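Appendix B.2, paired examples.
Example (i):
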Amino acid sequence: MDIFSLRSMKNLRFSIFLKLALLIIVFIVLVNFSLGFLIRFSSGKPPREFFGKPPHFIHEYVVREIGMPPDIDKAKSVSSELDLIMRIETQNKKWANEEFVPTISELKNEREFRYDRPDFSVHYKGRPYFVSVLKDGYIIFSPNVPRDYVNTEKAIISIIIIVTILALLFYFSLRWIFGPIKELSEGVKRIGKGDFDNDIDVKRNDELGELARSINSMKSEISGMIKSKESLLVDVSHELRSPLTRLKLATEFLSDKNIREKMQDDIKEMEIMITELLETYRLNHEKRNAGFTKRDIVKLVRQITSRLENGIVNFETEISEKLVNMNEVRMEIAVRNIIDNAVKYSDGKPVDVKIFEDNIGTLYISISDKGRGIEKEELENIFEPFYRIDKSRDKKIKGYGLGLSLVKRILNEHDSEITVKSIPGKGSEFIMKFPNNN
């Protein structure tokens, strides 16, 4: 046998399909074994093989023992000894040890009934009966068949128990075979959320184990490509700062005021984008909660809004001070990005910034505008990196789709959250929520 054949046998041995086939075979064997056990458990003494005797022997024995004319007491004794059900019908006596034993008139309707023999057998409702003809009547008898020995109550209870046990065994076996599917699903979800650090741990040599190894390999390759692109992006961003600084300095010597202001705006926009890229990178790679201290967030928001032109932002709060454990630099970026984003899409209308608390001390910062609003299908994507609602890249609306993504990352780092409500044509409201445990 060559190496390829051995490898194929090994793969077959651990195949899911082989496991299912073996499970079905074992289940069938258990069902058959259980049925055999059920019959033995729910039955009384086994039936005598009375019908193995020649008919004339049966006739002679029964007639001899019962006597002529038939003695009912002896008939009871014989039927008990031989496990017979019996009926005697003569001109003077009528007796049966079971009510379901058919009468001679009922048997005469069957095709097998004979008028030319002193003893014969005839089937009635699926059960064989012997008929012995007497001078003035008949003796009808039959051995107890297996179903007569089955205790119905025991049988039902046994069936329920056996079916329950087998169903549980089958369920747990299937759960063991397909158990890794849940772990695979959770692992894929983690990868979808950007968690490339943890492998899917499925120690199986079947198709599911192979799938887990393939996903882990794919994850490593994707993670490597992403890290390479991040590294390139960060390196380029760092390198751009020096020429931007020189350009910024050079614009100061331009005599044309309009050209100077346009170039300075473009340079400022590039600086903001570079800052956002670098902050996003730091958030992904720096230790969580780095640089956190207790700071007054009300003061921080007031300072940000005060830098904007009068009439653009209306700031309102009834809280004089609220200390929050935060990285002040990053929190300033988050709040500023939300306000700047609201101003960009407000179409010149004022933006309302409010700070308030609920009765359990949870702090809320609400930034609302009366601009164009956001379509429902866009809402779930606005926090994705480089996603812009304005697909036309209108130069009047600056930005590269990093601001809201950075806000969400910063708030996640602070164990806080952001939600958005929007009505197209009427405006949007972003609400930053800071739990009291901060």
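Example (ii):
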Amino acid sequence: MEFCPKCGSVILVEGKKANCAKCSYKPKGKIKIQTSQKGGAGGRIAVIDEKKMQTYPIVPIKCPECKAKEAFFWTMQTRSSDEAETKFYKCVDCEHTWREYQ
């Protein structure tokens, strides 16, 4: 990504043409287009396992499928704003998901 030396805005590249998005400055020479991004030290990219990254709170509730005693929960507004929100639960053991309306 290149920035304009006059105003600091991003220089847009369209085909072989390049100019500033704000002040129409045209850079002299070639613009280097970066197509990939190296991650971290030494070019290593961290892999995140989403199953290990559960950030939902755990509550004591019985799963209707496997009868486990804990589940993650979150809430969402699934109906109009003047109605109560919907609680969703996901079993810690079998990952069965269900919901409760208030």
